Amino acid sequence: MLTIAMPKGRIFDEAVELLRRADYALPPEFAESRKLVIDVTEEQMRFILAKPMDVVTYVEHGVADLGIAGKDVLMEEERNVYELLDLRISRCHLAVAGLPGVKMNEIAPRVATKYPNIASTYFREQGEQVEIIRLNGSIELAPLIGLADRIVDIVSTGRTLKENGLVELERIAEVTSRLIANPASYRLNSGEIERLVDRLAAVIPER
Ligand SMILES: Nc1ncnc2c1ncn2[C@@H]1O[C@H](COP(=O)(O)OP(=O)(O)OP(=O)(O)O)[C@@H](O)[C@H]1O
Ligand SMILES: O=P(O)(O)OC[C@H]1O[C@H](OP(=O)(O)OP(=O)(O)O)[C@H](O)[C@@H]1O
């Protein structure tokens, strides 16, 4: 039996749809359930439902063989997991944004983000020394109330930036969800995992 860590929230529905397209018989109540461990015995699969940022932790520790995680999460924390497949779902990108026409403060430039490692690496590579302020959400608020000059955040439709009068300034990276594996589980269950990879690869959306 394979244990798969699924991210609750945005990615979940698209991931479930992909698994169903690959002909995995997930029960109809799968998406509505409040259960956090769901066994699908006919498919020899166990699903655990976790916060998107925690999926990698379950996989790294080997309590899940496989997981589905956004590339943003994988970029933010270097973890000992294999990235097996780009599922091409939950597409968005990471960007630097700010108020139009507002320059970075030259003496004390500040960047607010949920992704401190991605942001600090990015600005270091640009040769800019900035203070990173970590927030957990509503990142777009930071430039509006003077907490930071810039934000590093996910942009999907661009609606949140627009409605808050912010503009995208630089694009950092494209983001889609990936199938990840625990290295030891992969070696132990390579046949079973490769079969799942092949079935998913056959149904992932076109670029
Ligand atoms: N518009 C978007 N905003 C945020 N994440 C998105 C968006 N579109 C796709 N994603 C993907 O979905 C993942 C986040 O999912 P979701 O928004 O459900 O969780 P979250 O709210 O960020 O997590 P948490 O519950 O820990 O705060 C990201 O890691 C990213 O890969
Ligand atoms: O470009 P858009 O389609 O508007 O999507 C981007 C927004 O969605 C995410 O926030 P989320 O809704 O997860 O809320 P949060 O601020 O609590 O993280 C992200 O952090 C952006 O704020």
TrEMBL record:
<comment type="subunit">
    <text>Heteromultimer composed of HisG and HisZ subunits.</text>
</comment>
<comment type="pathway">
    <text>Amino-acid biosynthesis; L-histidine biosynthesis; L-histidine from 5-phospho-alpha-D-ribose 1-diphosphate: step 1/9.</text>
</comment>
<comment type="similarity">
    <text>Belongs to the ATP phosphoribosyltransferase family. Short subfamily.</text>
</comment>
<dbReference type="GO" id="GO:0003879">
    <property type="term" value="F:ATP phosphoribosyltransferase activity"/>
</dbReference>
<keyword id="KW-0067">ATP-binding</keyword>
<keyword id="KW-0547">Nucleotide-binding</keyword>
<comment type="function">
    <text>Catalyzes the condensation of ATP and 5-phosphoribose 1-diphosphate to form N'-(5'-phosphoribosyl)-ATP (PR-ATP). Has a crucial role in the pathway because the rate of histidine biosynthesis seems to be controlled primarily by regulation of HisG enzymatic activity.</text>
</comment>
<protein>
    <recommendedName>
        <fullName>ATP phosphoribosyltransferase</fullName>
        <ecNumber>2.4.2.17</ecNumber>
    </recommendedName>
</protein>
<dbReference type="InterPro" id="IPR018198">
    <property type="entry name" value="ATP_PRibTrfase_CS"/>
</dbReference>
<keyword id="KW-0808">Transferase</keyword>
<feature type="domain" description="ATP phosphoribosyltransferase catalytic">
    <location>
        <begin position="51"/>
        <end position="201"/>
    </location>
</feature>
<keyword id="KW-0963">Cytoplasm</keyword>
<dbReference type="InterPro" id="IPR024893">
    <property type="entry name" value="ATP_PRibTrfase_HisG_short"/>
</dbReference>
<dbReference type="InterPro" id="IPR001348">
    <property type="entry name" value="ATP_PRibTrfase_HisG"/>
</dbReference>
<keyword id="KW-0368">Histidine biosynthesis</keyword>
<dbReference type="Pfam" id="PF01634">
    <property type="entry name" value="HisG"/>
</dbReference>
<keyword id="KW-0028">Amino-acid biosynthesis</keyword>
<dbReference type="InterPro" id="IPR013820">
    <property type="entry name" value="ATP_PRibTrfase_cat"/>
</dbReference>
<keyword id="KW-0328">Glycosyltransferase</keyword>
